[in-house]
Amino acid sequence: MSTSQLLPLDLLPILKKRKFRTTKIARGEGEGTHPTKQRGFGIEFSEYRAYEPGDNPKHIDWNHFAKSDKLYIKLFHEEKALSILILVDSSSSMFTEEHKWNYVKRLTLALGAIGITSGERVSVSILQGKPLVNLSKLGQLVQIADLFTFSKSVSNHDFLEALITAQNKTKTPSQAIFLSDFLQTPETFSPILDALTQKNLALTGIQVLGLNDLDPLAGSKTSCEVVDSETGQKLVISLGSEQKKQYETLLEEHTSKIKDLFYKRNAKFFSVKASQEIEDLINNDFRFGGLLA
Amino acid sequence: MSFFGLIISQPLLLAAFIPASGIALLAYRKRKNTKQVVVNSLFLLQQFKSQLTRRKAPKPPLRYLWEFILFVLLAIILSDPKLEGSTAKTAILLDDSMSMAAIHAGSTLFQNARKEILSEISLQPENFDLYTTSSGLLSEHNPPANFSYSQDDIPGALEKIFRTGIYEDVIVYTDKTPTDQIPKQFSYVQIRPSVDLENLSIAAASYSSEDSLISVKMKSFAKREVVANVLIHNWALEPIASQEVTISPFAEKEVSLAVPSLKEGAKISLDPKDFVDALPNDNYFFVAPTSIEKVIGVHSTLDFEKLALKPFPRLKFEAAQKQKTYDGLIFHYAAVSQLPDKPSIFLNSNPPNIPSSLTEKPSLAYLLEPGHEIARYLNFRLLTESKYYSYNLPANSISIAKSDNGTILGALIDKTTRYSFCGIEVLPYSGKESAFSSVLLLNLLKWTFLDDSPIEALSGIEVIAAKKGWSFLSESSSPRVLEEGELIKEPGLIKADNTLRSLNFFDEEESNLLKTQTFKAPSRDTSPSESGKTFQKDLLAGLLMGFSAILVLDLILFYFVL
What is the pLDDT of residue B382? Predict the structure, then answer.
């Protein structure tokens, strides 16, 4: 599968205009556009230091010398590239709908493309024991597409363990983007988010909901037997219009609880419907939500 | 059939027990195979479910059992159950007409019907009352205690039964089809032989006084040749002639027998040899000599069954005259050379200059002049005869009733003299007595002989005078022995020569005076049987409620719990 099959070529110019925004001081590596905690000679001023023999005289602040007759060196935050880790939930619920899974794929490709074109280091992990893919060139996006073609039969795995493994394998990640439908109890996600944020990682959660998630019993007239995609648990229920409204409310409440989990950890959260255009998502939701600049 | 204290009147429907388990199993399997939907948010649906109910779903065998009970209840309800000991009563009306005397397989249709009835009521005889249309045939068979009889035809008997208001159901056993006489709302059991019965009958007979010959036309409905004796007796039942005849299968045969001069008429009988005649009643025929006699009374000339007469209710009985003399003539089976100068009635007779014919195929009578005096109080709708005299009347005459072949009842006023023509048999025949004849003849007499007194003001018709040894029974008086010559002034029963005769013979229904034959269920007062019926209704209501409750429970389980 080529990248263009998942990511339209006309989307690329739009992606190139965007770059990841971070409010935290990055822990990047290699030259980049984001200031780091490391002192160096970038654009953003950091502090003054007394001149020591051997320092490059061109970094002496002559204005300061004129006022104080002392030689000081002007130090700046060193600008380096961000290390972005994209984590994709690959539990069974993510591919009960083909459209939903394809949407997650395209979204991952788009985010990866934004990172690469803006000079960041992008790592993608499908949380199912697949090797971590590190990307630095657009041509490597195909590797992301390959990541998604794993067997869907493996559905139950230790989510937290896979996540920590992926995190450790990434060198000094500065930002993590977590794509999931978050359709498990909020308590399930607390330890996962704690693990992600403990290393001062800038975290963003993107919830992708498919049609089945929004209206799981569409087409069922009065009653049916529902089977959980992950646990296999069964339940016979009947639905009327009133019950459908109640479900919508419950889903909203659940999304709100997940959002709170992220906000409490100074993380961003986006809830996205798989029917929404990716271009619209990048230009508006992610841009105005502070993920992209 | 009895079942756990219930009388099941529709046992076949109870057979629903057998498929009930199958249907319940299918229904269970259908529900078990409910459509499956894979969802990602079961934990949300569980919350949603818990908002509705937290009942535990029963295990499948229990659900299956409930559904089975549901179908069993339905089967019991459909099988029309009654509790044993219920006092709801059923009336059985047994047609006692002569056609039921047809013999099949060694017994009459009447006997077959009786056997069937006794078998039907054997379980709970106290819940059945038996009625017949007359006492004739049943009285010969040791009637049970709860036996009643009337002198009605089937519609008349049905109405009387209905008027009692105590019966849940009425079942009629008859050889007639419901469209003949039985209103459709009644149940009926048609007693019919499974094979065609063989019959020999006298189709027609006539007496010629000029050459003293009696012509007899016979018809065979047998599959083989039949040998029979034609016997002729005079009025005193003395044999006067006989002849052996051989009749081919399904053929007609006509013979003429020389007889002495007859004044009172003769009885012709057909006696087949080695042949079981299914309907022996049509083996007799009465011929009357041509009579041109002065009318001296309403019925006396023709010697009708005076005992059968009951005054029309609106007539004043007390002022009735014993006899009334008219000045006129009645021509009965007579051919005359010229119209007499006196008012005359032509009964099955050939009047001069008026062509007439005897039609032998069964036909219906069509009333043309319903308002005419001769047709008054007569209903021609049910009048079906196998043969009519039909007249081709002149233009200045009135056709009152017609058959397919011409006028069968007509009137003619020539100058000031009145003539009436009647092709309808007015004599009692084949043992079937009908008031139609009496009313018709009375009307003919009144119109022809200019008895212009209106019916309301008519002082009366001939009142019955008791003969020696008669006793009388009526609704308003206790049984008593009548004095000889005593006038009987009210309807009732006369017992003469150990035979009961009804004075209600002139009943409205019997004489077809009612315009319709529909009966309305009378409003019922509280009667002893009412409690039994209420009890049965309660039983059905209880069963229905049980059925509904289980159905609702099942739906709740299916839609809200499971």
Answer: 56
- Which of B35-39, B290-294, B406-410 is predicted with the least confidence, judged by mean pLDDT? B290-294
Burial of A97 (0-12, 13-18, 19+ CB in 10 A): buried
Q: Give bridge partners of residue B310 from the DSSP assignment.
A: none
Contact A179, A90 (CB under 8 A): no
Alpha-carbon distance values, B437 to B121, B304, B429 (Å): 38, 9, 10
The residue assigned the tokens 């009366």 is: B460
Contact A93 B40 (CB under 8 A): yes
The residue-averaged pLDDT of B354-375 equals 79
Amino acid at A59: H
A178 close to A87: Cβ distance less than 8 angstroms: yes
Of B34, B40, B48, the CB nearest to A236: B34
Region class of B430: left (phi > 0), else alpha (psi between -120 and 50), else beta: left
CB contact under 8 A, A229 and B40: yes
Q: Is the C-alpha dihedral spanning A103, A104, A109, A112 positive or negative? A: positive
pLDDT confidence bin for B311, thresholds 50/70/90: very low
> Per-residue confidence at B513, pLDDT binned at 50, 70, 90?
very low
Residue B18 CA to chain centroid, in angstroms? 41
**Selection from B110, B115, B74, B87 nearest residue B7 by Cα:** B87
Smallest Cβ–Cβ distance between B38 and the set A223, A227, A251 belongs to A227
pLDDT of residue B298: 32
B51: distance to nearest CA of chain A, Å? Answer: 10
How far, in Å, CA of A262 to CA of A178, rounded?
Answer: 11
Residue found under tokens 């394998």: A169
CA distances from A30 to A74, A139, A167, A236 (A): 22, 20, 19, 57
Eight-state DSSP code of residue B463: P
Contacts with A181 from chain B: Cβ below 8 Å: 40
Q: For residues B354 and B392, what is the distance between their CA atoms, to the nearest angstrom?
A: 6
Residue (of B465, B473, B475, B519) closest to B495 by Cα position:
B473
Instruction: Tell me the sheet residues that pair with B253.
Output: B218
Paired tokens of A76: 């700046």
Tell me the pLDDT tens digit for each residue of A269-278: 999 998 888 8
Whole-angstrom Cα distance, residue B457 to residue B447? 15
Judge contact between B283 and B201, C-beta under 8 A: yes
Residue type, B203: A
**A228, A229, A245, A252: which to substitute to probe chain B, counting the most B Cβ within 10 Å?**
A228
Q: A235–B34: do the CB atoms touch at under 8 Å?
A: no
Interface ipTM above 0.95: no
The residue written with tokens 């035809």 in the block is B153
Which range among A104-108, B360-364, B365-369 shows the weakest confidence by mean pLDDT?
A: B360-364
Work out the mean pLDDT of chain B and round it to a whole number: 67
The A-side interface with B (CB below 8 A) comprises 93, 96, 181, 183-185, 210, 212-213, 216-217, 220, 222-231, 233-238, 243, 246-247, 250-251, 254
* Tens of pLDDT, residues B260-275: 887 666 788 899 988 8
Beta sheet of A133-135, edge-to-edge order: A133-135, A121-126, A83-88, A175-180, A202-209, A268-273
Tokens of B40: 């990602």
Q: How many CB atoms lie within 10 A of CB B144?
A: 14
For residue B270, is it left (φ>0), alpha (ψ between -120 and 50) or beta?
beta
DSSP string, B150-179: -S--HHHHHHHHHHH--EEEEEEEESS-TT
Q: What is the DSSP letter of A103?
A: H
Q: What are the chain B neighbours of A223 within 8 Å (beta carbons)?
A: 34, 558-559
